[in-house]
Amino acid sequence: MPFDISILSVKDIIDILLVAFLLYKTYKLMKSSGSINVFTGILVFIVIWVIVSQVLQMRLLGSIFDKLVSVGVIALIVIFQDEIRHFLLSLGSRHRTSSLLRFFKGSQKNDNSKEAIMPIVMACLNMSKGKVGALIVIEKNFPLDDIARTGDIIDANINQRLIENIFFKNSPLHDGAMIISNKRIKAAGCILPVSHNLNIPKELGLRHRAALGVSQETDAMAIIVSEETGGISIAYQGEFYLKLTAEELERMLTSEDEL
Fold this sequence. Notes:
Elements: H1 10-33, H2 36-55, H3 59-79, H4 81-91, H5 94-105, H6 109-129, E1 134-138, H7 145-148, E2 152-157, H8 160-166, E3 177-181, E4 184-190, H9 206-217, E5 221-225, E6 232-236, E7 239-241, H10 246-255
Parallel strand pairs: 1-3
Antiparallel strand pairs: 1-5, 2-4, 3-4, 5-6, 6-7
Pfam families: CdaA_N, DAC
Keywords: ATP-binding, Cell membrane, Membrane, Nucleotide-binding, Nucleotidyltransferase, Transferase, Transmembrane, Transmembrane helix
Protein name: Diadenylate cyclase
């Protein structure tokens, strides 16, 4: 019997679109966290379970799969506990509330954000010319308090000269990462989680791996200035944007949420 699409109501269409959206977001989350193979394995298992239980109606094998599925939720919570924690912290973040308020009041962030962004851009350009290595992490919705505590708390206004002094080669904080939150330099000399992605190009060093790692585990944007080449790059949502010009760097920073 052919499926009659006319029986679909508006609610059914919204339901299908929401499920598709959730699957897409789950896929992106798994891909950025390096768990895409686990996600694919779960989908394959579900397909096999449906075929065995519903299509072939194998009662013995189907009952075994049913038991596995019944305890599978607990297993998934254990496997994806970091991703679940990331999602819940993101939902409860203070930035969600401020974004909602900006939506109703109208956005006035462009000028204010530019005042905070330009010192970062100019500092990165100067450090690039001098081949001074730097790693700057800009907090978004996911709080970086745990990472900030691994370094020295500064809590200072964003200032070009201060950024350059912190990453000066003889500075005791130059090897770690700087955390920027709420238009302020929150901490410096911080330790970031390192990505173990095997697809990272060999010419990219530890700073790039650390930047990619924090972009995979959080929604932060990490700016890298290479000590070897002076190139400016960004790691965001588990992806690299390499060899950026000043205009590209500014555009990427201003196109995202406020600092």
